[in-house]
Amino acid sequence: MTDACAFLDEVLDDEQVSRREHAREERSGDWSTAPEAAVRPDVVVWPESTDEVSAVLAAADERGVPVTPYAAGTGLEGGALPAQQGISMDMTRMDEVLAVRPADLQVDVRPGVLGSAVDEAVESHGLFFPPLPSSGDISTIGGMIATDASGMQTVKYGEVADWVLELEAVLADGTVVTAGSKARKTSAGYNLKDMVVGNEGTLAVVTRATLDLAGRPRQIRGGRAVFESLATAGAAIADAVQSGVDVAKIELVGPFAAQLANAYAGTDLPDSPMVFVEFHADHGIENEIDFCRTVFGAHDPIAFEMAADEEMDELWQLRKDMAYALDEYDPDLRPVHPGDVTVPIGSFPDIVRFARERADEADLPMACYGHAGDGNLHYEILVDPDDPEMVDRGEAVYAAIVEQAIEMDGTATGEHGIGLGKREFLEREHGAGAVRAMRSIKDALDPNGTLNPGKIFSDEE
Ligand SMILES: Cc1cc2nc3c(=O)[nH]c(=O)nc-3n(C[C@H](O)[C@H](O)[C@H](O)COP(=O)(O)OP(=O)(O)OC[C@H]3O[C@@H](n4cnc5c(N)ncnc54)[C@H](O)[C@@H]3O)c2cc1C
User: Fold this and answer.
1) Is the CB of 32 under 6 A from ligand 1?
2) Nearest-angstrom CA–CA distance, 74 and 291
3) Measured from the CB, is residue 342 less than 6 Å from ligand 1?
4) What integer is the mean pLDDT of 15-19?
5) Domains of the chain with CATH codes
6) pLDDT band at 443 (very low <50, low <70, confident <90, very high)
7) What span, in angstroms and rounded, lies between the C-alpha atoms of 154 and 249?
């Protein structure tokens, strides 16, 4: 049989191309991919420069070979899974921090650099990159840009899109484009930069990014409030945001999520809904904490305590480890699908209540947590994959929550992207006309369907 990817040996060095079982297996899905859903690429490549990305894409596009960008594989919607096989383009060797410009509050990076490495590179200048997701130390800047990731600090600082100034990206036919500007604002032409952000590897491969940075706050304090019910915790969060409390993090941790965290880390978090908070300021932080205390007070918290720094680090680590805690909780159960709906903040208590009621009615264990200040709810419905009836029940609850979020003028996905798993909801959320417009953009920039085919649009398999 002829090897459709033989051309790669002309374009890259030997150690940049692998057809080995192990390399293909490792890139057959992402964090969320069930073993039976994995799809192996025919070949894995590791480009080391923009020119190499361009050369591989141009040659693949000419020959009709699909190319799926792959970074750290921590995505939660199958984005990096090579649905139509072909080439998995692993971006992790392009991992340099190219330049730090403290005077401009900017850093230039290659896409394969880990988020935490960017923070480390700018720390000595008193700067940081605020929108890192909880997975910031295991995922890459390229993956974050491609999914428009966001994290615990988004409530104060915004999402990744808000911190990307300029991008270099390679289109499906190998054309290298620069989008956006190093200037803080630009009105020059179409905003290609924000089209590349969130493209999930379907329009362009990001090869360089100029990121905006913020000064590290001089004062940081964290704490935790405990509430009687998820509904009151949700209402307190909404009230804090509506009242203008200046929080840098405000995270919901439901009772079952706390139980999972306790089982995973041997901690003794209370068996009640909690809200973890963190405040950032250069002065007067106590005033903001008092303000939050007053707002929370109207919702009768069982407790609201500020923590010592090391206690707070432990709590945030627990919150970050939730995905691991879920995985390890019961080997016979796994989440049907990672939920990341996001609604306008006024509807947050209602989506929390709705989710809880649907899971209870269906008699399914469900962990609730999330970057609640953004109206974001993570809900993980656990099912036994060998029990098809339970899986169906779980899928039905999962879909009902997504549909309800859309009904509330929210979104099916606040941070993980559409990927494979949320394609059925795209039209429901945006309408047929908007999806047709997205399709036209895809067809114009990638007429041969080379880049990450099978994602975002449900008309592609
Ligand atoms: C424990 C855990 C916690 C998480 N917490 C959060 C969170 O708080 N917030 C959040 O938003 N997400 C979160 N995620 C999801 C995930 O980490 C993010 O989506 C992350 O941005 C993916 O980055 P990655 O490097 O792993 O990309 P991958 O998973 O490898 O790829 C993701 C997508 O980006 C595309 N891609 C990758 N690199 C490029 C490139 N250079 N150019 C073009 N396309 C590219 C891929 O084709 C794919 O579609 C979490 C995941 C885990 C496992």
Assistant:
1) no
2) 37
3) no
4) 97
5) 8-90 (3.30.43.10), 97-215 (3.30.465.10), 219-407 (3.40.462.10)
6) very high
7) 8
